[in-house]
Each structure stands twice: as C-alpha cells, then as structure tokens.
Amino acid sequence: MSKHPTLLQQFRSFCFQNNATHLETAIEYFAVFGGMGWRVDMSKPLDELIEEKVLKNYRYIHADITTITQSNPIHHKLLSALATGDRREHSAFKKARVKREEGEDSIDFLIEKGILVLDKSVEQPMDNYEKVSDKALFIQPFMRFWFAAISPYYKGIKEGDYSEFKKQWSHIKQEFSHLIYQQLVMPLLQKNAIDDPIVEIGSYWDEHVEIDILAKTKSGKQIVGSCKHSKNKANKSELTKLKESVEKAELNVDTYVVYSKNKFSQELKKEKGATVKLFSLNSIGNLLEELSEKDMLVHTNKKY
Description:
- The radius of gyration is 20 Å and the shape is globular.
- The protein contains 14 helices and 7 strands.
- It starts with 6 loop residues before the first helix and ends in a 20-residue tail after the last helix.
- Helix 5 (73-84) packs across helix 6 (89-96), helix 5 (73-84) packs across helix 8 (141-150) and helix 6 packs across helix 7 (100-112).
- The strands form 2 sheets. The chain has a 5-stranded mixed beta sheet with strand order 3-4-5-6-7. It has a two-stranded antiparallel ribbon with strand order 1-2.
- It is of the alpha/beta class and 304 residues long.
C-alpha cells in the first residue's frame, strides 16, 4: 500500500477545496497546482495564477524544494528530463547527460523523498532478453510542472525575467494535462469494473509499442485502453491502432477501451459493445461524485 495519496485522492481534494464546477478547467489547473493544497481561483486565467503564485514566489518555493532535493544538480537535471520526456529512466539519463549508476542512485533518492514513484509496464514483453526501462511518475502534479517549466529557467525567473519560462510554457501548455487525463481514466475503469474487479492497472510499453492502459481483472481477463485528447472526435481508426498495438505486443486482450475528451464518431459508436467500451470527459466526472470535506487532504507545506 502506497504511503502517498493517489492521484485521484489529490484531484478530489483539489476540486472540493477550490469548488470546481468545470471539469476540463479543473484538470488543466490541477496539472499545474495539484498536490500542494493551495487555494486556486479558477475564475482567473491560468497564466495569471502561475505568475501570481509561482513566479513571484520563486525564491520561497525554490528554497522549500531544494530542502528536499539537497540542491543536487543531478537530481534537478533528472527531474526536468523526466518532466519533459517519455518518463523512461534510460531516456532521462541520456537527456540529463548523467551516468546510469548516478542516475539510478538519484532516482532511488527521489523515490525515498516522495517526489517520484516507479512505474513498471504491467506486462513484460514476450522476449525475455529485451530490456525494458522502467518509467517514473511525479507523485504531485505541481512538482512535474515545476521541473518542466520553472526549474530549468531559474536564472531569469529569480531576476524577474519570465521570457524563457513563457516560451517553454507556450510549447508544452496545450498537452501538459494529457498525462493527468490518462491517470484519471485508470480509476474510472476500476470504478466501472464491478462484476470482475481490476486487480492490476497501468500502462504497457516495450521497445516498439506503447499502450496507454493495460489492466488485469480478478478472473484473469485483460483490458487495454487508448486515450485521445485532441479537439476532434475519436474515430474508428483509434480502435484499429489500439488493436494493431495489441497484436504487436502479443497480448491476449478481452476488452478494448477508447477514452476521448471530445466525443466519438458515429462509426466508432457502432463498435461499442461487450468487448469495446467508450468513455468521455463526462465519464471522468463520475470520479467526483459525493465530494465532501472528508476528501480534503492535510498538507503541511507552505501555502502560496
């Protein structure tokens, strides 16, 4: 059992504390401020809040974070590489230009300090000799935002020059919440698996294939899922690509799931049935049922 709150617990706490009324906005703001227990006025533009709460308080937040990271440059380089890359350890080592042994020691330290958690492929590839790198997840969404958009540009930010940050944020802002959606679809599937509970869920990856969601049920069935975040409706090609990935990975799958933030084409809707499930943004809203004060997490960090 993890000693840290799950992402869903953090999201429910965030939504209750900040009186979230619009789901998509809540996820977008949670991707930036989540996990810190800060009050966030979601009627204000996100960029305005980032400047008010983060950029103007850079020195104080930096001091709090470096207390945990011990100002170790290897830790900081790795965290930024993980925040902006594919989350694979080996990719992060290469991007941060650190030796594997140093990188592994750093990851172990950051896990121990509660910044990261290890993320393993649910199913190992059929080829046992194939080495598949583990991935890492940030426990708190804000930490991912900090090391993706703030920490690498500290020189300008601490002097009040936000131009480098703004340039980086403009490049990553549109897709930054995609990982949060994917992480929320997982508990959504668990919530809906009433007759045959899910006992293991995560992602699948090897050297050639990436599958957003792979789950195993109590009866031994496997569920795979694809998460589409674009403004266009998901069409049948999403299901086709998912099936092709399953075939390449040589997985024995019973149910296919397609999540789309912006609905589905009529052609894809016709595929819906016992082995094909469709979930939308409204479906994620079911995770916020019966929000109450008991959902509020206790945070001991400083509030900004």
